[in-house]
Design brief:
It is a single chain. This protein is mostly helical. Helices cover about 40% and strands about 0% of the residues. It is elongated. Pfam families: UPF0239. Belongs to the UPF0239 family. This is MANBL protein. Keywords: Membrane, Transmembrane, Transmembrane helix.
Length: about 80
Amino acid sequence: MAAELDFSPPEIPEPTFMENVLRYGLFFGAIFQLICVLAIILPVSKSHKADSDSFEPKNSEPVKKPKATAPQISKKPKKETKKKR
């Protein structure tokens, strides 16, 4: 009876080129997502903040903003007309 049972491993076909591309592409995508999540969770080093501040212009005088002009009062008021029924 033991001679009748076949315990050999099943035949698994070799993966095709597209299956390999898909498999490694999914691995690459998962690693990229982990890197992105870690970049959000981990704090940024302080040396990076100091570098970004050095690019800002350093003027001793504050930048003056132009003042908004006041609306002119000399305009003629519009005539009010009664509604015709």
